[in-house]
Write a structure and sequence with these properties.
mainly alpha, 2 domains, 9 helices, about 60% helix
């Protein structure tokens, strides 16, 4: 009974003959190659970190623009020393936001991955530079104040003799006699 269910009633016992056909392989059609002209090589895409550090360190001289393939604006930036600093600051901001494009109009590689790093680098640089300028300014003001106070009190000569070894300054009696017009 099971055999009757597996075999359809209209199936025949003789096999059907399928004609054998030979299929020819398809030959690819090759386009003619012009060997007289060299192939135009497109430069690789620029990496964000390379552009960032070139602009950060040598942006005043247009090195970042030359690297991006923007030779004309690189020369202008070189001649004007980064547009008197303003152009260099604008370029570093454009690079940090990822808006800077190369000559072919392509974005830089891995902008999203390194934006935070670039921001931290600029922040630390600004903090260190600001602290250095502040400390140098305060030390300069202190030095000028000390010099003016010593000049007003007439104590400068005594302070110099205490700082320098013996024999470097002339005798104080000689200086006093010259000032008094007795020499």
């Amino acid at each position: 009974m099971q055999d009757d269910l597996d075999t359809p009633s209209h199936a025949s016992a003789t096999p059907i003959a399928v004609p054998a056909t030979v299929v020819e392989p398809i030959q690819p059609v090759l386009a003619p190659v012009d060997t007289t002209k060299p192939a135009k090589k497109i430069p690789r895409q620029r990496h964000f970190l390379a552009v960032f550090f070139l602009s950060f360190m040598w942006g005043m001289f247009g090195v970042d623009r030359f690297y991006m393939g923007l030779v004309g604006t690189g020369i202008l930036k070189l001649i004007t020393l980064g547009g008197f600093g303003f152009w260099a600051l604008i370029d570093i901001a454009l690079i940090m936001t990822g808006a800077m494009k190369d000559k072919q109009g392509r974005d830089m590689l891995q902008v999203a991955e390194y934006k935070k790093f670039a921001g931290k680098t600029v922040l630390w640089f600004a903090i260190i530079l600001g602290a250095t300028v502040l400390i140098t300014g305060l030390l300069g003001i202190l030095s000028i104040y000390t010099l003016i106070t010593a000049l007003q009190s007439g104590d400068l000569q005594n302070n110099l003799t205490n700082l320098l070894p013996a024999g470097v300054l002339p005798d104080t009696d000689l200086i006093n006699s010259i000032e008094a017009g007795q020499y």
